[in-house]
Design a protein that fits this description.
This protein has 111 residues and is mainly β. It has a five-stranded mixed sheet. Strand 7 and strand 8 form a beta hairpin. The radius of gyration is 15 Å and the shape is elongated. The protein starts with 14 loop residues before the first strand and ends with a strand.
């Protein structure tokens, strides 16, 4: 589908994890929030997209977002599912047209 769309809108999406912040200490149920970090949004606002959240490269959560809810990306993570210590929290957003946005933060879990 990549070659079939308007090439002027091509570009990977810029994402940021707005919560938790890098180095945050988390325990129990922790909210994860993601936002766009720039103007490149691929086709997500038009067609929706799939947000995936990973902890230490293992899929934690996946959800399809449809317009108009795009932009309000969030989930809850039960931190008791991992051992205490440092972990990498990563997110990936795919618009279905070969445009991907990703971000990551290192956090500390203490339960």
């Amino acid at each position: 589908e990549h070659a079939a769309h308007d090439q002027s809108k091509c570009g990977d999406m810029a994402l940021q994890i707005t919560h938790p912040r890098p180095g945050a200490v988390l325990g129990g149920q922790a909210g994860v929030r993601v936002a766009f970090a720039g103007t490149k949004r691929g086709y997500v606002a038009k067609t929706g997209g799939i947000l995936r959240v990973y902890v230490d490269y293992e899929l934690l959560w996946e959800r399809r977002y449809e317009p108009p809810e795009v932009g309000a990306f969030e989930c809850v993570w039960d931190t008791t599912s991992v051992a205490n210590g440092s972990h990498m929290l990563m997110v990936n957003l795919d618009d279905g047209y070969d445009h991907i946005g990703s971000a990551g933060v290192e956090i500390e879990v203490q339960n």
